[in-house]
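#dry-run=false #mode=assembly
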Amino acid sequence: MLNLARKLSEAGVMGLNKRNGDYISRYNPRRFYPLVDDKLKTKLLAERAGIAVTELYAVIEVEGQLRDLHKIIADYSDFAIKPAQGSGGDGIEVIVGRAKNLFRKSNGQIITEDHLKFHISNILSGLFSLGGHEDKAIIEYRVKFDQIFDSISYQGVPDIRIIVYKGFPVMAMIRLPTYMSGGRANLHQGAIGVGIDLSNGRTLNAVWKNSVITEHPDTRNPVTGFEIPHWEELLVIAAKCYELTNLGYLGVDIVLDRTKGPLVLEMNARPGLNIQIANHMGLLHRLRFIDANAENMGSYMDRVSFSRRILTRVN
Amino acid sequence: MINRHLLLLSAILMAIGISLFCYKTIYLGFPVIPGQETHIWNVEIKINFQANNRPAKLNLYVPRNSQYFSIINENFISRGYGVSISTIDGNRQVAWSIRKASGQQTLYYQAMVERLITTDKDVTSKKITPVSPDYQGADLEAALAILSEAKEKSADSITLLFQLIDLFNDYKENYNVNLLLRGKMTPDREIDSIIRILAIEGIAARQVSGIKMVESHDQSEPAAWIEIYTAKGWQAVDMGSKQFVELSDFLVLWKGVDRMASLVGGSNLDIDINIKRSEVESLAAANVREKNINPNFSRYSLSNLPLDTQNVYSILLTVPFGVFLLVVLRNIIGIKTFGTFMPILIALSFRETQLLSGIILFTILVTLGLVIRFYLERLKLLLVPRLASVLIIVIMLMLMMSILSHNLGIESGLSVALFPMVIITMTIERMSIVWEEKGSSDAIYQGIGSLVAAAIAFQVMSNQVVEHLITVFPEILFIILSLILLLGRYTGYRLFELARFRVLVKK
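#status=ok
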């Protein structure tokens, strides 16, 4: 057992205690948390910094606004409803089409406006929020994901998670929804995690439920060796988020929209550790390499190029 | 990466905890294991005398803490008498005095005495001067003659003492000895003479009187022996075998040539000494001892609180053990539980229900609650009203289970009422949310994790030794706090993570 621990340590694998004790508590000052825990704040902040995010249609803050819901959503035929402080994709309802007062969800189910109101009221009462306290509901642009992912995704929207340490992109993966994950991009629920080569955006290993795979279990298409478009741009967005949030250890979730290109979905001050399994690589070697060689490197462009040229070879 | 500040802080806390613990175990003798018993002796000295209708004063030598015995409690019982205790020349003497007394007077001295290994060995740093020989004329000549006879056959002060004992034992053969003893041999006179002869030679010796601590139905009599001052301090000598002896069975009453009690203003003095051995719980003995040795310490200790408050604390104080365990289970093993401290509260209610029936009742309650909660999910209630309804349903379920099990004759089912209902409600709520969002396997896994943690915490918290330790030594809290602080900077892998990341080991 100790032997295993030593081997993991040699492989630079980061455990939860290490992440919480040595990285989050050290580089993520708590006062900056609200910026990333509240999607609304994140969105406004990113927009101001010129980072593309999903367009905000409306915010519902109190129960009373629900009476005018039909007015608020009158102009939109498709949209997404999210809790501002939700975690792990909970409480997100995606409407792909409507006919007057009937709405079609992404899984094909038809619901009424009353149903929608009830969902929003649940969000407001804090059902999905981190601490269970009252929340706001965000109505925003529905991401139409790039056709390029059609072959390797089952329902849902694949998203790209990039870990940014002191402003340097250090590791990336793409999460592909499956039938098992119910269209959600959560590895824990059965989504596929695929590591990405930092230098060129090409997918590496794929992990599904703790086992290594090469093709999508539902679509049977290969998931490795797949090139993610706009790679440089994705890395630049991720690197910029460091200046935006002041969080030294940050997870940035980005989606690729077929018309609008990369959009920041959310940021995470406590990014999970599964990215190590998806990349078949521990995080610590790269984090330590940055500590030793690249403290305080100027612009985000410099950092991205450092990550693509040098960091990618550290493993 | 443990920083120095944290190390220092936990080292200080640890030092405080350990030193208080050691002080109480070693110096005050608090028992580490519950239910230990200590042998103690109850010594009672009863004094009778006839008062002569005028001021009376009685002096009595009483024991003091010695190398072998420690007084944990003592009482002076006397009606109408003023009591004063003085320490003179290493002796403790109590003086009872009264302005006017007549008829039969009875005074008591009672002490609880315990065999003890104390550190204060009788080594005085100051120069010991022998007593004044105080012989004159023929007596002096006789003493000098005895001394020179003994000196011929001896090499040092100790062998000299042995020779003197020999000469006195054969007192009938020796004219000089006979003269000093005035023809009558008593232990007192023999010891007195030997001490005075040694004093001529400049050797310090003394008479010591004490009582033998053995239980007897008869009265005990004080016995006297001789002690000689050597490099190792005062050493007792056995007159018969002529050897140094450890008189560990004797409780020393006084040193010097004197009577045990002296009376002024009365007659027919009579002293009864009674010794009784008894067993008391070590904890009780230690508490009495603490009160005597360190009264302030005892005033601010837990054992001074009202009994029902003490009972509450005896449970509360075990919680830190459970919390410590939880830290280990969560941060080092990696077990997932519902709520950080929920298992501790469940473990506390297991105290009443007992482990097995507790686990069964808890499982039934949560399962039924979950089923109803899933039904409520379909009603689309808002959060707070939903929690409130689940709470009411939990209470109803408890009531039903109690009534049902009572009718079935399963009395252990009644104790279901002792589960913390709010905690159960929150557990059901969290479990159902995890069930919906992360799937049933996660919910059940966390549920079992919570129960396992609760069961382990219960085993530790209800352990007799643990409960005894923490109530007798609340300073253990410092030690636990210090350990938890250190664990707070444990950044190594959790046990379950080893399995999770096993695939990442490089071949």
